[in-house]
Amino acid sequence: MDPLPPPDPKRFEVSRGTLLFDRFMGIAIRLGGISVILAVFGIFYFIGKEVVPLFQSAEVKPVGMMHSDVPPAVMGVDEWGKLPFFYNGGDKLVFIQAKDQSRKEVDLPDLNGGQITAFSYDPVHQRVALGLADGQVGSFAVHYQQTYEDGKLSGVDASVEEEPFFQLEHGDGPVTEISYGDSGTGRIIAAKREGSTGSSVSIVQLGMKRSLLGKGKLSLIGETEVSTELPAPASLVRSSQNGAMVLIACENGEVAYFLADSEGVSKRQTFKPFDTAVPRQINFLFGGVSIIVTGSDGEQSQWSLFRKNGEGERLFGETKTFPNLPQGKVLFAGSQRNRSFLTGAGKHLSIRHSTSGAVRWEGETDLDPVAAVLDAKGENFIVAAADGSAERYSIHDPHPDSSWRAFFGKVWYEGGSEPVYQWQSTGGTDDFEPKLSLIPLIFGSLKGTFYALLFSIPVALLAALFSAAFLPPDIKKVVKPTMEIMSSLPSVVLGFLAGLWLAPILENRVPSVLLMLISIPLTALLTGFVWCRLPIQIRNRFEGGREWLVVLPFLALAAWLSWSLGPVIEKIFFVYKDPATGKEIADFRVWWPHATGARFEQRNSLVLGFMMGFAVIPVIFTIAEDALSNVPKSLTAAASALGANRWQVVWTVMLPVASSGIFSALMIGFGRAVGETMIMVMATGNTPVTQWNIFNGMRTLSANIAVELPEASEGSTHYRTLFLGAVVLFAMTFVMNTIAEVLRQRLRERNKLV
Amino acid sequence: MSAEEPKNQTPFSTTGRSRKGEPWVWLTAMGLSIGVVMALGLLLLIVVKGTASFWPRRIELMEVKTPQGKEMIAGFITRETERKDSSGALHQEVQIFRGNKDISGDTFRFYDRKDILKASRPKDYLRIERTEYGPAIVKPVALETSSGKVPAKAADFHKKLDEWIDQAADARAQLLVIERKKIGAISREIDALDTALKNQKVDPKVAEKRRAELQAEFDQRQKEAAEIRAKFTGTNLLVQTADGHDASIPVANVMGVFQSNQAGLFQRMGEMWHRIWEFLSDEPREANTEGGVFPAIFGTVVMTLVMSLFVTPFGVIAAIYLREYAKQGMVVRIVRICVNNLAGVPSIVFGVFGLAFFVYFVGAKIDHAFFADQLPTPTYGTPGILWASLTLALLTLPVVIVATEEALSAVPRGVREAALACGASKWQTIQRVVLPASLPGILTGVILAMARGAGEVAPLMLVGVVKFSPTLPIDGVAPFIHPDRKFMHLGFHIFDLGFQSPDAEAAIPVVYATALLLIVVVVTLNLTAILIRNRLKKRFATSSF
C-alpha cells in the first residue's frame, strides 16, 4: 500500500477572497451602524439647532458715518435706512444718502414768514409737525420713493408734501411743544404755548373729508383748551400716532391722559409714573396701547391701557420697569414691526423689548448723540450728534420677542390686567402682540396625561396583576395579544371616536359615568366577597383564573344599571334653579358651571382620559405584566409554602419585588400619554387653558405643534417656538424613558441574583 | 387527564380556601375584564359601524309632525341620539338621511322620535347614486329620452334605465380617457414647450409650429368629448321626492339605481359588495364625502413600502453592528438605552425634525442644485411622499433595531461556535448562520414597523399628507415615480373628513369605513407579527440546549 500523500498544509488556509470580504463587511457594517446611530442622534442636534437662535440677543454693528452740518432736532429715515433726513427748524430739510454721502436739500413749504419754534417727528406717518411763534400749528410729510432693478432695491428718493396750517385760538405766545397723530380718518394736534399769561395746552381735532377722486381735505373740527384740567403746568405733550389720545406730563411729575374721539376731548385719568422723578420722555410703542415713560433720573417704565380687574374703562397702569438709563439726553426710537425700541442716554444705547421686558442689546457710541431713529424694517438705526455727524448701525435681531421669560415666565401683556401665562401665537391685526408662553401648553400636556393615567393606571395594573398572578397560560396566550392589538390601534381612529362618537354620547350622561366609576369596582369587590362565602364544594368546582370571565356579567349589569340610573341621580343631585324664571333644570351641563364656576365642554378631559386609555393601558399592561411575571418562582413558591394565600403572595411578595418594573411601566405610560397627538387634537377643544377642571379641554404641546407648525413660516419666531415646544416634549419623554429603562435593567439584574 | 397532573401550571390554580383578600383578587379580575372588553369592544364597534356604512338600508317613507304641520320624508335613520332641551328634559332624537342635496337643500334632518307619526316602505322608491350632489332618494316618474317618455309603471322601464346607465358609465370612462389622459398629455407638452422656449432651448419657429399642431389636436379632442356628452342631452330621469317636488336627474350623472325596498337579501349583499368595491377602487367625490378612497389606500401603501425599504437595511445593519461588531461596554449600553428611548419619543417630534431637516434643509438644497429653473416654486423643498417615508423610517428605526437585536441575541451560542469551528469567517457565520436563524425575528420587527408607520398620522401632517390630491405618487406620466408629490393617507383622511370637512355629517359613514379599512390593515400586520413571533419562540425553545 502506498503511504497517503502528506496533507497539503494550504488546505487549512482560508482563501484570501473570504478574508478580504470578511474584512470589507466588518468595515462596512461598522461604518453603517455608526452612521445610523449618529443619524439618530443627529435628530436631537438638528432640532436643537433650530431653537438656539431664539436665545441669542441682538447683534448691532456700526456700518458707517455720515455728516450733515445740521444739528438735528428731528431726524427721520426711510424703510430701508438708506436716506435719513436731518432737520432743526430751518427752511431746509437735508437728506444724506447713506451709500455715498451725497447730500440733497429740499426747501420747505413757505410758512408765511412764520418762525418755527417747536417740532416733532412721527415716524409712523413720516410727518414732521411744526409749531410757529405766532401760534400756528401744521405739518409736512416726507414721502420716500423706492426704485427697483431686477426685483432688488436700487435707490431711494424723497419728496416733501406740505400740509395745511391752523391758527390756535387759545393762549398766546409761541408754540413750544407739539405732537401730531393720524388715525386715517382724522388727525389730532396737541400743542403747548408759552405766553405772557402763562402756558396753555390745546388739542386740535382735524377731520379728513375724502372726496371720490383724489386726496382728502383736512378741516378743523375743534380746538379744546385743557390746561385748566391739568394738576400743574404742562412740561411735555404727546399724542399717540394713531390719533386717539393725548398724554400731557406736568411739572409735578403727573401725567394726564386725554381721549379724543368723535365726542371731543375728555380727560380720563391722571397718574404719577415715578415717585419723585419727573417724566422727561413719553413715547408710544407699536400698536398704540403702551407707552414708555423715561424719568429725569433715567428710570424707564412701561404703562399700558387695560381694564383694572377686567372692568370699566381702559386706563393706564404700570406693567413693567426697565433698567435705569445713565444721565444724559434721553434718546428714543420705537420699532414699527414689533414692540422693541431703541433707547439710550449719553453715550449709552440699548435695544429693549416691551413684551418680555428684556434688554436685547447694550452698547456705547462714540458720538454724543442728540437724536436717534430706527427704520421701519427694524434693520438699521442712526444716531446723530449735535454737530450734525451721524453714525449708522445695522441690527440683526430676528427674534426680538423671545426670551426665557417670554416662554416660561408670567408676562404682563398689553391690555391684560395682570401678568399671565398665555399662548396666542397669531392674531388678526398687524400690531398683534404674540403671546408665546409655553406654560399653558405644558400644563395642557400634563393635564391630558394626568386624566389619561388616572383611568389607565388602575385598569392596566389590575389587569397586569391578574394576568401575571392568576391567569392560566393557555388563556394568557390569547389575552396578551388582545391587549397588544389594542396598542396598535391607530390613534387617529381613537381620536375620531372620542370626538365624534363618545363625546356626544357622554355629554348628556355625565351622572351615569360618575355612577359607573363607583359602581363597577364596588360590584367587582362585592362579587368577590359573596363568592368566597359560598361553600367550598361549589368554589372548588371552578378552576382559578376564570374570575375575569365570571365577573363580566356582573360588571355589565352594574354598568347598565348605572347608565339607566344616571338621569335619576341627575334629577336628585344636579339640579340648577334658574333665578330668573325659578324653573328647575336637571342638567349636569348647566349645574356644573354654576356649582363650580368652571366651564363644561362637550370635548372634555373625561372623554379624553377614557380614549387615551386605549393607547396607554396596553403599554403599561405589557411592561408591568412582564415585570410581575418575571418575579422568581422560588420567591412566590416559598411564600405559598409558608401558608400565604394567593392574595397575600401577590401583595407581599410579587408587588414589592416587581415594584421598580411597575414604576418603569408607569413612566413609559406617561411618556406615551404626554406625546400623544391625534387623540389630543381631536378629542379636546384645543383651547390653551390652565385649569384642572375635568369638564373642559386643553391644548397640549403635541397638538399645538400639529395644528400650528404647517402654517408657521420657516425661520420665524413662531416656527422656532414650536420647535422649542418639541424640545420640551422630547426632553420630558426622554427623561422619563431613561429613568424607566435604567430601573428595568436594574430590576433584571436583581432578579438574576435571586 | 390524570388526577396528578393539574391542567394549569400557575401557582394559584385553585381559587383557594382562604377568604382573606379574595375581593381584591376579583378587583384585579375586573381590571383584566375592562381591558379585554375595551379592546374587543372598540374593534367590534368599528367593524359594525364600518360594515353598516356599506349595507343598503331600506327606504322608509315617514310622516313627521313639525311645528308648521306635517311633512313627508323618505330616507332612513342614520343615528339615534339623546338631546337635552333647556329645561333638562331628555329627548330621543333621530337623524334621517334623505339625500337629494340639490333638490331639498339639506341631506340630513333631525326629528324627535315621538314626532314620527307613520312609517311605511313603499316598493317604488329608488336610491340613485349620482356623480354629483350625492345620492337621491326618490320615486321615479318617467324616463325622458329624445325618442319619448317611458313611464315608471311601464314594464320595460328598469330595463331601459339600466341600458342608459350602462351607456353613461361607458361614456364617463371614455371622457376620462380623453380629458384626463389625452388632453392632459397635450397641455403637459405645451407647458414643456413654454419652459424650453423660455430657456431658449428650442427654435421659436419650430415651437410655434408644434404649438399649432397641439392646439389642433386639443380642439379635436374637445370636440370628441362634446360629441359624447351630446348623446345624453335630453335624456333625464324624471322623479318625485317624498315631499312632492318634481325633479329631473340627467342620466349622464346616474351611476346606479338600487330598488332598496324590493331587493332581496342576496341582491342587497350584492349591492354591498358593489359598494365596498367602489369604496376601495374609486376616487373620492363631493369633497371626499362620496366615492372611494383609492388614492388614500395607494398613498398609504406606497408610503409604507418606501418606508420599509429604507428602514429595513439601516435598522438591520445598525443592530448587527451593535450586537456582533461593537465592543460590549458602557458606550454600547448607553447607545442601546437611547435607541430604546427613541421608540418612546412622541411621533410629532419626528415630524418636526422631518420638516426642518428633510423639507427645509435637504429639499431646499436639492432644489437649488437640480431644479433651479423652477424656483421660487419648490419641487423637493416642500412636503412630499419621499420626505414622509424618510421621516417615518426614522420613527420606526428603533422598532427594527430592537427586534433585530433581540433576534440576533436569541441565536444560540452553540450554533455560532459550530460555524466558527468549521472555519467560517465572522461574516460568513453571520451571513449563513446567524441571519437566516434570526430572519423571522427581523421580519417581525419590520412588520411591526410597517404597522406603526401605516397608522401614524401626526408627523405626516407636517411632512407631506394632503386632504385631496388629484395625482398619485406613481403613475403613467414620465418619470412615472414622483417622490416629490404630496399624497393622501387613510389616517389623515379620517382626521380631515371627521374634523375639517364642511359637511361632517355626510362624511361620517366614509370615516367609519376608512377607519375599518385602516384598522384591518394595521391589525392584520400586527397579528402576522405576533404569529411569526409565537412560532419563533417555539422553534428556539426546541433548538436551545
TrEMBL record, chain A:
PROSITE patterns for this protein: ABC_TM1
Transmembrane region(s): 27-47, 450-471, 483-506, 512-536, 548-569, 606-628, 649-670, 722-743
Topological type in the membrane: Multi-pass membrane protein
Gene3D superfamilies hit by this protein: MetI-like
Keyword vocabulary terms for this entry: Membrane, Transmembrane, Transmembrane helix, Transport
A single Gene Ontology CC term: plasma membrane
Residues annotated as domain ABC transmembrane type-1: 442-740
Biological process annotations from GO: transmembrane transport
UniProt superkingdom: Bacteria
Localization, UniProt: Cell membrane
Protein name, UniProt field: ABC transporter permease subunit
Source organism of this protein record: Luteolibacter pohnpeiensis
Lineage of origin: Bacteria, Pseudomonadati, Verrucomicrobiota, Verrucomicrobiia, Verrucomicrobiales
Automatic annotation (TrEMBL), chain B:
Transmembrane segments: 24-48, 293-322, 342-364, 384-403, 433-451, 510-532
Assigned keywords, A-Z: Cell membrane, Membrane, Transmembrane, Transmembrane helix, Transport
GO molecular function: phosphate transmembrane transporter activity
Compartment annotation: Cell membrane
Chain ranges of the ABC transmembrane type-1 domain: 297-529
SUPFAM superfamilies per record: MetI-like
Pfam family, one: BPD_transp_1
Keyword DNA-binding (UniProt): no
Topology versus the membrane: Multi-pass membrane protein
Entry keyword annotation includes Secreted: no
Annotated GO biological process: phosphate ion transmembrane transport
InterPro entries: MetI-like, MetI-like_sf, Phosphate_PstA
GO cellular component: plasma membrane
Similarity-based family: Belongs to the binding-protein-dependent transport system permease family. CysTW subfamily.
Protein name: Phosphate transport system permease protein PstA
Organism per entry: Luteolibacter pohnpeiensis
